Amino acid sequence: xxxxxxxxxxxxxxxxxxxxxxxxxxxxxxxxxxxxxxxxxxxxxxxxxxxxxxxxxxxxxxxxxxxxxxxxxxxxxxxxxxxxxxxxxxxxxxxxxxxxxxxxxxxxxxxxxxxxxxxxxxxxxxxxxxxxxxxxxxxxxxxxxxxxxxxxxxxxxxxxxxxxxxxxxxxxxxxxxxxxxxxxxxxxxxxxxxxxxxxxxxxxxxxxxxxxxxxxxxxxxxxxxxxxxxxxxxxxxxxxxxxxxxxxxxxxxxxxxxxxxxxxxxxxxxxxxxxxxxxxxxxxxxxxxxxxxxxxxxxxxxxxxxxxxxxxxxxxxxxxxxxxxxxxxxxxxxxxxxxxxxxxxxxxxxxxxxxxxxxxxxxxxxxxxxxxxxxxxxxxxxxxxxxxxxxxxxxxxxxxxxxxxxxxxxxxxxxxxxxxxxxxxxxxxxxxxxxxxxxxxxxxxxxxxxxxxxxxxxxxxxxxxxxxxxx
Amino acid sequence: xxxxxxxxxxxxxxxxxxxxxxxxxxxxxxxxxxxxxxxxxxxxxxxxxxxxxxxxxxxxxxxxxxxxxxxxxxxxxxxxxxxxxxxxxxxxxxxxxxxxxxxxxxxxxxxxxxxxxxxxxxxxxxxxxxxxxxxxxxxxxxxxxxxxxxxxxxxxxxxxxxxxxxxxxxxxxxxxxxxxxxxxxxxxxxxxxxxxxxxxxxxxxxxxxxxxxxxxxxxxxxxxxxxxxxxxxxxxxxxxxxxxxxxxxxxxxxxxxxxxxxxxxxxxxxxxxxxxxxxxxxxxxxxxxxxx
Lengths: 471, 292
What we know:
The structure holds 2 protein chains of 2 kinds. Chain A is α+β, with helices and mostly antiparallel strands. Helix content of chain A is 42%, strand content 19%. Chain A is built from 17 helices and 16 strands. Chain A has helices spanning 16-19, 39-57, 90-111, 114-119, 121-137, 140-148, 153-179, 184-192, 198-218, 220-226, 228-232, 248-251, 263-266, 276-280, 300-312, 324-327, 337-359, and strands at 62-63, 66-67, 69-72, 77-80, 83-85, 243-246, 319-322, 363-369, 376-377, 383-393, 399-406, 412-414, 418-421, 426-435, 444-453, 456-468. In chain A, a hairpin with a 4-residue loop joins strand 3 (69-72) and strand 4 (77-80). The longest helix of chain A is centred in the middle third of the chain and has 27 residues, at 153-179. Helix content of chain B is 58%, strand content 5%. Chain B has 11 helices and 4 strands; from the N terminus they run αββααααααβαααβα. In chain B, helix 3 packs parallel to helix 11 (272-290). Chain B is elongated and about 120 Å long. The interface between A and B is medium-sized, with 19 and 24 residues.
């Protein structure tokens, strides 16, 4: 650039050749992850096991004669731990998902992609599959060698064992998943007897296949190319967000050295360039290149590097959970407006949701006025209106309900007002109301039908309707 | 479909398919041949690279074409061609109806063999009956079956055509056509008023004694044939009881006079073809249960 304008940023001419060629149709490079043990791996184990046990055991637990968690799609009823949700409760699920999303945002702002690294099913199942791979095909080097070796009986056996064990885990996963939608005890029995309905067989096979492909073959590609969350998560990051990062100021210049050598004398940093951090990475990146979108914050490289630092007798934490601000030599601000805001809003939403859940009345009344005749006049000059009431007892227990009126003085109900409904029963009730037309000011008067369980007064609700009389 | 339009669609569809296959395969490139991996197209410094179609994408496209061809061969899609499976929506509808018939046959036969009085005590059958009533009867008789102007109350024990299970079933199956003639021209205005006064007196209601006495003559001449000498009605003729204070078309003096003057031709439609025997049997039991 010959001329420089201080007001403007310098433009640089870059020839296409210098950009370098990015191949959009890049083949996937197989990642052979190395096994690593350490502090964060143990944390993953302790968080993973309860979650997995919960997933696999929950559908087997029965509560009050019914599967504790069952999403009964054909009946359009969700049974969750003793509560039964009807389609009209669906907005609660939306609310719950919003809370979960907000929780995720809050955690991400505070500590980065913890969800990805520790609890995301993709990561957890990939870890299980890697563990199986480790125990059937051996360590990283053994696997690389095995893949390059020509086919032999031993290779066939190892590969068969690996894929067999993968398919077994995938099948258990798929079976359990379907078991949340179709009574699992029935499902297992029917599958064993080859009498399961075709849809159940299909979906079990479908989820088995997808689990096998996702955790066995796709792995980090799901995170890199398919997961939308991975892409927008970085929006939530700020300078104080915890990230797994390599401390460049401490590590560089990197280089191999003898254990006894003093790095300061050699003019080297603490990184011995052993590449262990690269070998353990499930997404195949080099963390020393800085924060990358592929990084799922799993901290395997932290454990790997710490083990090396211990061997070299250097302080731990060359790769560690840190923040950009800390890396720049400042201190991480833990308490910041964004976090406080998230926590406050999250707390508020959880409070409102809990209140909604506790105040939920498992009873619904809806009223449809007969429209074929606006009103019926009787010989005595009274006016009658006809209504269809739909009463849904969403409680699991049987109750006796009493129907009444509010806001329509002097009205008489023609028909039964006492009904006994079984748990989960919906009843249509035809009723008519008789009024003296003189007692009504307007041709159309709004009032409420009320319904109350006679044995449980808290179980009550109301529905608005109108009474019409001739002009 | 006219054969022109049928061929029009067939030719367009087939030509499009063939064209797509040609475009797809003609543009398929292997590995780039040139040394610089470009097609040579340059515009404004932007070069077009000569990359092959991704294999998975190409494969998917081929699969969609295979699917399309197979679909068009098996199902109706190419003009008037019926497809090799001979599928039609009417056929599928009939199959599903037949399947439903098969599913419910056992239950239907069971109810059909039961007398109406017994079905009326079966809660499951009454829930079915209630739903059928809502769909087919409530429009006129009201959701609570208590009727309205011109439509009889089905919950009391007053029946125009009789309240036995057989009579109710006949009413639903074949319908009813009331035929109360208009007596206005025969009786004259005064005669109508007199007859109306007599009908009021039959119910013990206030009526001019003189008019009623004259009305009695008219009643015995013209009305008694159907409504009976005491005005108690005749279910066999569909002639309502005029002495129990239940009025289909209103019980005020002018309303009664109007019925006499202009006649009444209420109609209950036949449901034989709409519902069929089995459903009518259960519906009969439901209507029967309303007043028993």
